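Key result, reporting period 2: structure in, sequence out.
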């Protein structure tokens, strides 16, 4: 039986590692932590350094997507996170658009038949 190497996943990341992963400054992460404290609460070690879990990093990605990607204000992003409304996946959006286009095409064909 071949040897299977075990992979070890980190449990915590430093603020510098998270900032590098997201492509932002550490000061922006601290600011988001202050503004979105209800969603992002990193642990701290004995020296007071922030330690982020995967869940908190995902929340920071969502905040970044809402604020930087979709142009939400901070209050709008907070409301969106509180409401728990999940973003549609791109495939869902494509399916919605396709369904609407099929409906429009059907309506146009019906209009053409009437005239």
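The corresponding designed sequence is given below.
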């Amino acid at each position: 039986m071949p040897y299977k190497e075990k992979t070890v996943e980190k449990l915590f990341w430093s603020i510098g590692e998270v900032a590098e992963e997201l492509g932002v400054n550490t000061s922006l992460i601290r600011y988001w932590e202050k503004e979105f404290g209800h969603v992002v609460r990193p642990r701290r070690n004995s020296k007071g350094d922030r330690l982020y879990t995967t869940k908190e990093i995902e929340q920071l990605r969502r905040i970044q997507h809402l604020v930087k990607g979709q142009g939400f204000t901070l209050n709008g992003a907070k409301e969106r996170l509180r409401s728990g409304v999940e973003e549609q996946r791109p495939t869902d959006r494509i399916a919605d658009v396709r369904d609407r286009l099929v409906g429009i095409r059907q309506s146009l064909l019906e209009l053409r038949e009437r005239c």
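Helices lie at 15-22, 26-35, 54-69, 74-83, 90-114. Residues 90-114 form the longest helix (25 residues). This case is discussed further under Risks and Mitigation.
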